[in-house]
Amino acid sequence: xxxxxxxxxxxxxxxxxxxxxxxxxxxxxxxxxxxxxxxxxxxxxxxxxxxxxxxxxxxxxxxxxxxxxxxxxxxxxxxxxxxxxxxxxxxxxxxxxxxxxxxxxxxxxxxxxxxxxxxxxxxxxxxxxxxxxxxxxxxxxxxxxxxxxxxxxxxxxxxxxxxxxxxxxxxxxxxxxxxxxxxxxxxxxxxxxxxxxxxxxxxxxxxxxxxxxxxxxxxxxxxxxxxxxxxxxxxxxxxxxxxxxxxxxxxxxxxxxxxxxxxxxxxxxxxxxxxxxxxxxxxxxxxxxxxxxxxxxxxxxxxxxxxxxxx
Length: 311
Description:
Blueprint: H1 2-16, H2 22-53, H3 63-69, E1 76-77, E2 86-87, H4 94-113, H5 124-169, H6 182-204, H7 206-211, H8 220-265, H9 271-308
Antiparallel strand pairs: 1-2
Helix pairs in contact: 1-5, 2-8, 4-5, 5-9, 6-8, 6-9, 8-9
């Protein structure tokens, strides 16, 4: 199923960028790779200049300051080195801005693509439709079934696209990864936890939601104990969701920054080894961005289905 959805996405990708043959597609992919390498070169230059700015009086560079400077949240947006940062108004932070940009980007590609209802979609709409079909056929329906999955499909599609977009925005050198902030991933997990209880109360009722956690015929004393364990289980599962997404995205960026920082810690000649590994890590981050969105959406679907399904 995943392979078939990938084929549909690839065909729609070719149609949208007017690639009439594999030669055109290969040429376009080369341009994308060159663009990624240019972005990475800009990122490398930015880290280098930041490292020179954070050089102490004895000539040693405060590498820890450089590393955390690129991932921590702040009210100042730094687009280019040696250019005065842009102070964000109204108490907005950089990660808040990344979330806003991700939301606007999703609206900007979906609204024009589906502005007119039609049975025959083309171009970008085909590609976006394949993403929706992927979420439906490989995440929601296998877990919830078609009957209950139809009601939850818009939410999980939005969740998947939102996390993917945030992760990719964080890969742009001038921007930061909002999912590398535990507050952002924690807010997502709190939303999932709230939907677990709201969905369970709506489907089974407040009493039925808790009694559904106990096998039939369970003594009341043991039942109260089981309800407490199951309730804490939902809280722990939601917490693990946020920690997993945060840790993977934060660690990926730290590894990338650390590889580049080795050039300044050891010797500039170490760039022969460090830069290829950093490029590989950067490409790996592109794949991990999708995988983490898939895992978060899939597990959220499983947890919510556990709450709304009667045993």
